[in-house]
Amino acid sequence: MMATFNIATFNCAGMADTVRRAALLNLFRKLPVQIICVQETHSRPENEAQWAREWAPGEVIFNSATDVTAAQNGVAIFINDSNLQISDVKKDLSGRVISMDVSTRLSTIHLTNIDAPASAIANKNNFFDSLYPHIISKFPNVLAGDFNTLDRPDIDRYPPGAPTEKNKTLISLCNKCQLTDAFRTLYGDVREYTRQGQSQARLDRIYTSKEILIANQYSTPESLSDHDIVILQIKNVITPERGKGIWTNNTTIYDQQPFQQDFTERWTKWQTLHPILFVHKSEWWMHIKSRIKDLNQKYARRQAHQRKNEEKDLEKDLREVWEKLPQKPELLPKFYSIKKQLLKNQLHITKEKVYEEQAIAKGNFALGSKKFFEQFAKKRTNTKIEVISNPQGKLQSETKDILKTIHEFYQQPYREKPNDPEAADHFLNHFNSAAK
């Protein structure tokens, strides 16, 4: 469970001007919320440190565009409660996304703040497709920000929009990540608009996981921007029950020289166990498989620890360079380089988490990432097997039948116990003789 708290999202329309920024920070301090997700900060890497000091003693996370021509971008998350703990912060390189875990004493949520591009539909679709690694999390999700597009143009725009304005890529993202529009959950088809211009539209929205129980959502106009402030009141968070999970064989470990050397030494000793402790070689093999798994896990933990230390060093370097930027703008290339390496590491770790979640889901593809689906489809398309014979001798030409036959074939060696231990011994002995 989690104590009730509030999250706001607000497109501030720029805070580079000193006086305007002071007015915005004063507004944020007065808001009855613990977290403020802000878009279009117009921040630059070299002024993030100074702006953070102006918000002190509160905590703030900035993400600024690395492209100088994209000064209109920039997102930030302002923390207005010292009791909240922030971890696992991720950012994109365009200054449009920040995601992080937010913890209270009782529970944790995964929060993502976005500023979607207002340009062509193709750019918007690419942006939403890129969000999967930022949203995938073991914790309940809150996705907030300026979406610059609609999934209900009939009631979220005035004058009403055409059905063709509906952004199917965003809808697909929400469906696969199991997110729902908090306002629609509470108020159904009630009309409300958060941006007033030549037309009105509800561009500023907050999506939540089903585990997040919402008490209320409302918006309030603000003279500092043409966008309203949207505030979500969270009543409770139900931590989803999670089982032990499924171990996935980390095959990259087998390529490491230390593992290969260790395994070779152990394998020589393991072979001597057969005549002493086991009647059948099949029983010996089932025992040895568990030892190989333990060895794999040992080196996987060592690899994860090393990677974590490397990431901590990068984050430390990034922080040090970031603090020096106001006085030494020539450090920008180094800042971008470290930031890019951190992003690469974060995406790699997220990819591993996606595959882990995929295994736990046992076929529930809603937990997969956009990239996973694309790779899965590509591998199926590129298969060289056009026809295969099943155990009954029947030819299979349909993709699903081919995959099923192959799956069953490779599943056989890993059954709980072989049906015929003597036959298994005969095979293993023949295999060992042939290997010699």
Describe the structure.
The protein has helices spanning 18-30, 48-55, 121-129, 132-135, 168-176, 182-187, 257-271, 273-277, 281-324, 332-361, 370-381, 399-411, 421-435, and strands spanning 5-11, 35-39, 59-63, 75-79, 85-91, 97-103, 108-115, 141-146, 157-158, 179-181, 195-196, 200-201, 204-209, 212-220, 229-237, 388-389, 395-396. It is of the alpha+beta class and 436 residues long. The protein has a domain at 5-237: Deoxyribonuclease I, Chain A (4-Layer Sandwich), CATH 3.60.10.10. The strands form four sheets. Strands 3-4-2-1-15-14 form a six-stranded mixed sheet. Helix 9 runs antiparallel to helix 10 (332-361). The longest helix is centred in the last third of the chain and has 44 residues, at 281-324.
The CATH class label of the domain at 5-237 is Alpha Beta
Please give the number of β-strands: 17
| Main sheet makeup | 6 strands, mixed
In what range is the share of β-strand residues? 15-25%
CATH topology of the domain at 5-237: Deoxyribonuclease I, Chain A
Placed side by side, the strands forming the largest sheet appear as 3-4-2-1-15-14
Separation of the first and last Cα atoms: 61 Å
Helix content: 40-55%
What is the mean predicted local confidence, pLDDT? 83
CATH architecture of the domain at 5-237: 4-Layer Sandwich
**Helix vs. strand class:** alpha+beta
Rg estimate, integer Å: 27 Å
**Fourth CATH level, the homologous superfamily of the domain at 5-237:** Endonuclease/exonuclease/phosphatase
The SSE order reads: EHEHEEEEEHHEEHEHEEEEEHHHHHEEHH
The best one-word shape is globular
| Total DSSP helices | 13
Residue stretches low in confidence (pLDDT < 50, at least 5 long) are 359-368, 376-383
